[in-house]
């Protein structure tokens, strides 16, 4: 039995258990045209190209538009050849057989075998059929990170303090990210420019002095992406 056939068998069982939901929302104009033309399959989806994992379960909303009515849509997230680490089934299945399906995919951190390249598998299915119509969408899964910023004056010298934290999926908590380069940036009225560079210490914290900016100048910290952790941008803080 093919992967799609096996999955379709499961989907039929899931569909039989779904409780009727409120009437489906009106289909998008493009989907309506596709339906009129009889174009089967998944016509569009906003399954994101980037997934930030920041909790034991991260819920990712996905919209799927089909060209003809289906009983439901299933979206799962996995690395090629691995078991799914996230799964969602459209809540509107079997109600009006809509063209626009809303799916909430629950991504479970403890099921991740690693970070990086994954794929969304989007399947539109009909009860009684063992050949769902599908689409594969590539995505990049990494840990979420956050960076905070405070400023104060030491005499006439500006002191900038920051802290960088990233999600640790095994510990299920945020931990300091050491030895990461951080850009201190100011807004000059037209764009953001770097005024100082810094590196986090073993605890994921940083302190730097001497940025030449006037009091009240908007400041932020920017951290670039890393192979396993997405970068971060702090909230904007006025210079002390």
Give the amount of beta strand, in percent.
Answer: over 45%
Rg over alpha carbons: 23 Å
Question: Strands of the largest sheet, in order across it?
Answer: 1-3-6-5-4-7-8-2
- Please bin the fraction of helical residues: under 10%
Order of helices and strands: HHEEEEEEEEEEEEEEEEE
Identify the CATH architecture of the largest domain.
Sandwich
Poorly predicted residue ranges? 1-37
Got a strand count?
17
Instruction: State the secondary-structure class.
Output: mainly beta
Classified by CATH, the class of the largest domain is: Mainly Beta
How many structural domains are formed by the residues? 2
- Main beta-sheet strand count, sense and barrel state: 8 strands, mixed
By CATH, the topology of the largest domain is Immunoglobulin-like
Let me know the average pLDDT.
Answer: 85
How many DSSP H or I helices? 2
Envelope shape: elongated
Through-space gap between termini: 66 Å
Note down, in words, how this protein is organized.
The protein is mainly beta and 240 residues long. The chain has 2 domains: 3-141, Immunoglobulin-like, CATH 2.60.40.2550; 145-238, Immunoglobulins (Immunoglobulin-like), CATH 2.60.40.10. It is built from 2 helices and 17 strands. It has helices spanning 3-17, 29-36, and strands at residues 42-45, 50-53, 57-66, 72-78, 86-89, 100-108, 116-125, 133-143, 145-154, 157-168, 173-176, 181-187, 192-199, 205-209, 218-223, 232-233, 237-238. It has an 8-stranded mixed beta sheet with strand order 1-3-6-5-4-7-8-2. Strands 12, 13, 15, 16 and 17 form a 5-stranded antiparallel beta sheet that branches. Strands 9, 10, 11 and 14 form a 4-stranded antiparallel beta sheet that branches. A hairpin with a 2-residue loop joins β9 (145-154) and β10. The longest helix has 15 residues, at 3-17. The chain is elongated and about 75 Å long. The termini are far apart. The relative contact order is 0.16. Residues 1-37 have low confidence and may be disordered.
